[in-house]
Amino acid sequence: MNKFLIFLLLPIWAFCQSSIQDFETMIDNKQYQEVEPLLIKYLENNPNNLKATELLGDTFGYQKKWDEAIGNYKKLVEYKPNTANYHYKYGGVLGMKALSVSKFTALGLIGDIKSAFLKAAELDANHIDTRWALVELYMQLPGVLGGSKNKSLKYAEELEILSKVDGYLAKGYVYEYDDAPELAEKFYKMAIVEGGSLTCFNKLTVFYEKENRPKDAIKNIEEAEGKLKRNALHYQIGKVAAEYNIELGKGEACLNRYLENYSAKDGVPKAWAYYRLAQIETHQKNKEKALRYIDLAITELPEIGVFKEQKEIVLSL
Fold first, then answer.
1. Fewer beta carbons under 10 A from the terminal one: N or C of the chain?
2. Is residue 32 part of a domain?
3. Angle made by CA atoms 49, 55, 56, in degrees to the nearest 5
4. Average pLDDT over residues 93-121
5. What is the mean pLDDT of the chain?
6. What distance in Å separates the CA atoms of residue 259 and residue 270, rounded to the nearest whole number?
7. pLDDT tens-digit series, residues 200-221
8. What distance in Å separates the CA atoms of residue 212 and residue 246, rounded to the nearest whole number?
9. Distance between CA atoms of residues 166 and 169, nearest Å
10. Residue 300 CB burial class (10 angstroms; 0-12, 13-18, ≥19)
């Protein structure tokens, strides 16, 4: 009899498992609106399925439905209070809601955000994302609300123990936020030496752009392209050249290379490369070429406002 019942129940169990996997696949494919009602229906029949509850929270979060996401993660925290990742996600969506509401309303959320992240860090000594969240939280909070560079550095030190790259990037972030550019640059460069990933190079590039050091930004991107061989980095060189009106020949060559080798995985649509080429030609007072490029950009993405603004600039040459 037991074997017979197990035989009958196996298809149901398999269906539940495959459904969860299907939901995960849809979320990975960014089909948030499609998967949301399916998860809601699934949870009507399986109200205690924690994975489905978490996935629904994720789906709401990706759609910026903060209150709904908060509700789902709160259920998880209450049901399994010793799971670090539930506290981390709960604190994360509370933080996102705080950014979307008035400052007065946000103040009322700070305590819960901090408690959620601290609880996650306490529960899991190896939770990297939580420590990143605490580094950023303590740097961004005013002192009267508990903000502290020393606390940020404490969690950056913990990150460094878990992952040297993350620790160096976190320290770079802290010192950049604290207006100590020399130290920020030092740690971003240490992250590149240690990890050498695109993320590491991008952090230093963005830092150089914020510091109005475009030549250093281009040099850093060129180093990244030499090591990582990513076509997207050709666009980045062209972007910096166009925005800062420097090394225009190099910028033009890189943008043309980007277009020649373009594929969807490069991330930035071709229209933006045409726009940067139009900027470069505008700097050089080449009205005809600039107009051709900006028209190509507008044809591909007609809703982008800056393209239309650039066309007005070109027409006024």
1. N
2. yes
3. 90
4. 92
5. 92
6. 7
7. 999 999 999 999 999 999 999 9
8. 12
9. 5
10. middle
* Rounded distance between C-alpha atoms, residue 121 and residue 134, angstroms: 9
pLDDT tens, position by position, 41-100: 999 989 999 999 999 999 999 999 999 999 999 999 999 999 999 999 999 999 999 989
Between CA 103 and CA 82 the distance in angstroms is: 31
Number of domains in the chain: 1
The CATH number of whichever domain residue 96 belongs to comes to 1.25.40.10
The structure tokens listed for 185 are 């640059």
CA torsion 123→70→153→220, rounded to 10°?
120
The verdict on residue 111 lying in a domain is: yes
- pTM score above 0.90: no
For the chain, what's the residue count? 317
Contacts of 18 (CB under 8 A, 6+ apart): none
Phi-psi region of 144 (alpha: psi -120 to 50; beta: other; left: phi over 0): alpha
Residue position matching structure tokens 């030190």: 157
pLDDT at 20: 86
Q: Is residue 102 part of a domain?
A: yes
Are the CB atoms for 51 and 39 separated by under 8 Å? no
Rg of the chain in Å (alpha carbons)? 24
Q: Return the amino acid letter for 89.
A: K
Domain carrying residue 32: 20-124
Q: Is residue 47 part of a domain?
A: yes
